[in-house]
Amino acid sequence: MHWDRQNANAKCTMRWPPTTEFSYHPDKSVATNPIYEADAAYRILEAWDVLRSPEKRKAYDSRLQATRLKQDAVVNAEVDLDDMDYDEAVHAYSTPCRCGGRYAMTEEDLEYGADTVGCDNCSLRIRVLYYVVEGNEEEEI
After folding, report:
1. What confidence tens digit (pLDDT) does each residue in 110-134 have?
2. 50, 61 contact by CB (below 8 A)
């Protein structure tokens, strides 16, 4: 589920579901496809639950950002995570871009499997190479 209202405030999200949800509620609408209507109502309520909870919303936004970072894009270089600078204060890895900007990837991005990152100053992107360690297994990303 993707929401263009990522910056909607709590007041907006609290009043949003009743009118939207009722238009898809199986008891409140004349359904041409009852299965679709029930699924739509469920997805709306699920989205509302995420949007009204600051913790769930932050986790959703992080997963969405990581998904966007992992999408296929033109990659200008590959950089090993070990070659990047680590900032303990913000829990992020970074490396300079040739334009003078920086590529930065947070630990949270890495946890969600992101492997590409854009420069904060230009349109260049890099692929960050690292291993995911789970138990005794290592998987290269």
Report:
1. 888 888 899 999 989 999 998 877 6
2. no
Mean pLDDT of 24-33: 56
What is the 3-class SS of 105-132, one letter each residue?
EEHHHHHCCCCEEEECCCCCEEEEECEE
Question: Residue 135 forms beta bridges with which residues?
Answer: none
- The encoded tokens of residue 63 equal 């997963």
pTM, full prediction: 0.49
β partners of residue 128: 79
* 103-128 CB burial, b ≥16 within 10 A, e <16: bbbbebbbebebbbbbbeeeebbbeb
Q: Is the CATH code 3.10.660.10 the one for domain 73-140?
A: yes
Domain residue ranges in the chain:
10-52, 73-140
Which one, of 141, 89, 95, lies nearest residue 118 by Cα? 95
Q: Are 41 and 31 in contact (CB under 8 A)?
A: no
**What pLDDT is attached to residue 94?**
96
Give the rounded percent of residues in the chain with a pLDDT score beyond 70: 62
